[in-house]
Structure formats: C-alpha cells, structure tokens
Amino acid sequence: MAKRTTAEPLANKEAFSVSDLTRLSDLSKGFLRLEIRRGALRARRFGRRILVLRQDWDRYLQAR
C-alpha cells in the first residue's frame, strides 16, 4: 500500500482517524478508544476504519 504524498493538513479534515486525533490532541490512542467504547466520543465505522467526524470531535471537546 502506497503512502499519500500530499497529506491534507489535519485542521482541514472533515473526519479523523484515532491516529489523527492523537496527533491533534496529545491524547493516547488507548484513551480515545476507551472514550469511543464508553460512548463519550462518537465514532463511525467505514469498512475497517474508525473515523470521528469533525462535528463530533468539536462536541466532545466542548463537553470536556
């Protein structure tokens, strides 16, 4: 699988992977996955990928 050479900046994305969120927030992947399992952070599955929409991330940050 080839890596993308033109990476879209994280700030402009409409959906984030758990890895993206760790880079954005300095929170660990384990903590974010726990928050998703608890239902505190809404995530959606697209195939095998788990993505968090920007609006759900913003809502999560506002609630904290």
Explain what this protein looks like in three dimensions.
The chain has 64 residues and is α+β, with helices and mostly antiparallel strands. It has a single domain, classed as Orthogonal Bundle (Arc Repressor Mutant, subunit A). The protein is built from 3 helices and 3 strands. A 3-stranded antiparallel β-sheet has the order 1-3-2. Strand 2 and strand 3 form a beta hairpin. The model has no long low-confidence stretch (mean pLDDT 89).
Question: Can you give the mean pLDDT?
Answer: 89
What's the N-to-C terminus distance? 37 Å
In helices, the fraction of residues equals 40-55%
Q: Which band does the percent of strand residues land in?
A: 15-25%
In order across it, which strands form the biggest sheet? Answer: 1-3-2
Rg over CA atoms, rounded to whole Å, is 12 Å
Number of helical segments with 4 or more residues: 3
- Per the CATH scheme, the topology name is Arc Repressor Mutant, subunit A
What's this, in brief?
The chain has helices at residues 18-25, 29-38, 54-63, and strands at 15-17, 44-46, 49-53. By secondary structure, it is an alpha+beta fold. The protein has a 3-stranded antiparallel sheet.
What is the topological layout?
Elements: E1 15-17, H1 18-25, H2 29-38, E2 44-46, E3 49-53, H3 54-63
Features:
globular, three-stranded antiparallel sheet, 3 helices, 3 strands, alpha+beta, 64 residues, Arc Repressor Mutant, subunit A
